[in-house]
Specification:
With about 170 residues, the chain is mainly α. The protein has 2 domains: about 35-145, Winged helix-like DNA-binding domain superfamily/Winged helix DNA-binding domain (Arc Repressor Mutant, subunit A, Orthogonal Bundle), CATH 1.10.10.10; about 145-174. About 65% of the residues lie in helices and about 5% in strands. It is built from 7 helices and 2 strands, in the order αααααββαα. The protein has helices spanning about 10-25, 35-50, 55-70, 75-85, 85-100, 120-140, 145-174; strands at about 105, 115-120. The chain has a two-stranded antiparallel ribbon with strand order 1-2. A hairpin with a 7-residue loop joins β1 (about 105) and β2. α4 crosses α5. The longest helix is centred in the C-terminal third of the chain and has 27 residues, at about 145-174.
């Protein structure tokens, strides 16, 4: 794809959409063979649990990411709020992840009536393996960029992310 310096913001947005669609098409091909069996086994376990369907996969990963970044394990209500989905959907997803031994329900130490959701030890290992794989893959991809280009790319993508983050906060508060 060639970038025209005279492109309008709309033209550049169109090019971003094209790039994102390309990423979506490439994503399954980016799983390296040594990671595919483990990933496939885990997804098969989730599928066989009967709790999770194909459409839930993005929510599965969002749930794992959210929990890996959480300082305090959330309640089901807090988790569904963070994911922006109904409590019943969050419960179904958590049930599947618990059955796959990626998550566990724990009692709140301050209130026995409250149940919180956290990653199991296996879930933490699975998440760390996935993160390490992503880092290795990004490192390989960045190898075709000079150090200055890597810095510039990081700066620009971070700026784009911050804009998206600010916009999402404005949408929520509206």
């Amino acid at each position: 794809m060639e970038i025209n310096p005279m492109s309008t913001t709309q033209d550049i947005a169109d090019q971003f959409v094209e790039i994102i669609q390309g990423f979506v098409q490439l994503r399954p091909k980016l799983i390296t063979p040594e990671h595919a069996p483990h990933f496939s086994q885990q997804m098969e376990s989730l599928k066989n649990s009967g709790m999770v369907n194909f459409e839930d996969r993005p929510l599965l990963f969002r749930t794992l990411i959210l929990l890996s970044r959480s300082k305090t394990p959330p309640t089901m209500g807090e988790l569904s709020g963070e994911l922006g989905i109904p409590l019943s959907s969050a419960t179904r997803i958590v049930d599947g992840l618990v059955n796959a031994n990626l998550l566990e329900r724990v009692n709140d130490p301050l209130d026995r009536r409250v149940v919180r959701i956290q990653m199991s030890e296996y879930g933490k290992q699975f998440s760390q393996t996935a993160t390490d794989h992503i880092k290795q893959h990004i490192t390989r991809l960045l190898g075709s960029f000079s150090p200055a280009e890597q810095e510039q790319l990081l700066h620009l993508v971070t700026k784009l992310f911050r804009s998206m983050e600010a916009e999402s906060k404005n949408v929520i508060s509206s």
